[in-house]
Description:
By secondary structure, the protein is an alpha+beta fold. Helix content is 44%, strand content 12%. The strands form two sheets. The chain has a three-stranded antiparallel sheet. It has a two-stranded antiparallel ribbon with strand order 4-5. Strand 1 (12-16) and strand 2 form a beta hairpin. Mean pLDDT is 79; it is low at 56-69.
Amino acid sequence: MKIPKTPIAFDYDIWTTEDGKCMVRVKRTGEVSEVDRKVMRILRAEEKRIRRSYGSDNSSEDEDGAEKISDTVLSLDAMPEDDVKSAAWLADSRDCMEELITALKEKELLSILTEKQRELYLAMTREGLTLREFARRKGIGIRAAFDLKAAVQKKFQRIF
């Protein structure tokens, strides 16, 4: 099996000049740049990892002697449809539907709260104020703040 100097799946051509400079060319743009030795070591390690991943079953030579890579896609942008288990790490672990439903319910809650109830709800949920701090800030008694909180909780339970 003939292994190319830099694998097709590797995005860079890397080399060291005669005077010891570490050079990198981006295959896609053709841009050439000198890089640190630390960067060169990282790129070489990645190149070796990709080269090792080529097995005799992953590549073969065609009639012209040129290397032919199998249809295995080496990209973080692609998740195989038939093998979801091995690429499960790539899928987003957050459940956006839950966040969306919660945001819609909260919007509905805010629409049915009175102005003072809305201020209390936002102060406690967004700003993290306690009930006593809210009462002090608004200049109302603690009993009035408790009544506001009870009204918000009643409406909250209806929606959530």
